[in-house]
Amino acid sequence: MKTVVQPGYFDIKARNSAESAGASPLSHAILDSLPARIAVLNADGIIQTVNEAWVAFENENSLTVLSKTDYNNTNYIELLKRSEGYILEESSEAIVGILAVLKGDISSFAMEYCYDLRGIKCWFLMRITGLPSLQGAIVTHDDITDRKEIELMKDEFISIASHELKTPITSLKGIVHILKLSFGKQMRGEGGKLLSTMESQLNKLVKILSDLLVMNATPGAKVLLHLEKFDFKKLVNETVRNVKNLSPLHFLSIAENESISFTGDRFRMEQVITNLLTNAVKYSPQSNQVIIKSTVDDGKLLFSVQDFGIGIDNENLNKVFERFYRVKTKRTFAGFGLGLYISAEIIKAHRGKIWVESESGKGCVFHFSLPLTND
Ligand code: ADP
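That is the input. Now the predicted structure with adenosine-5'-diphosphate docked in place:
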């Protein structure tokens, strides 16, 4: 394997000696100006250079088993092996990632890790990015402690809020049940209907809260499905009607709604459709059109919700399905960044796909597709 660094890349030997004028001072200056710890590896994983932040961090925290100048020609993979269980618990995972990038099996690799720095729990994001023509890789370590702390606070908040809400909602459910038993016969017509709607909405709320608790406590937790055969067209009509009641100023129009017998979890599918519709309304403060389509193509159910609201820029397009991800916008919209994450988990559990097309300022089209079984 090639160990020679191509001209133009960074060379620690040159950096630490009189040759440094011949290396690329501009490249070194750029690397040194960055707050992340950065190392450049050659194709064999040998460190070619590290930036100032790297050296400063290792020295400040007395982490390294190397002295400052020893980085020269040190094999980073060996260094990680030596630190296993001592500095970095997840060394073996990092090594697998680095080797895969160096071999060109993958173009980049990232992992988050945590360690105790003088009694303080700190979080870092390690990223390995391959150099062109398999010449090596760039390793960066970013401090993500602040972001992680906010995530943990959100976890805690959601967990407390959902716990606290469960008690009054359960008690309301009990009251509605008693009302139905006591006045059921007298409440024929509108009153009885309203009580039944109230009961079914409370049941949904209880289920949503327990979902929030599970998803929050265990990111990546599998959604459990209760499969049944149901009329997807009817579900679309009902869900659109419910959201229309909540958002009377928006025009929710069903452009296509094919008759589909679908086997899946009806309640979960309603949750996904409700989430897409309420988002379409919420993120369209200047526009009131929402178009819904539900069709069948090539053995798949295709569902889409189009709005003409604020849209999502390219950079954030795939991130919106991540847990807690919210796009930063000038205007504030209420939310936690969990709805699309839960929706994506539900669609995944049905072996389907969910995605979004959008242009900033022009609105979004959220789609999902679900395989149709033959049963
Ligand atoms: P929440 O709406 O509670 O923040 P979601 O998981 O439903 O959480 O959505 C994640 C993020 O995706 C939102 O914060 C918003 O930035 C973006 N988003 C979702 N739906 C839309 C939409 N229809 N138009 C524009 N942005 C959207």
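The chain has ten helices and twelve strands.
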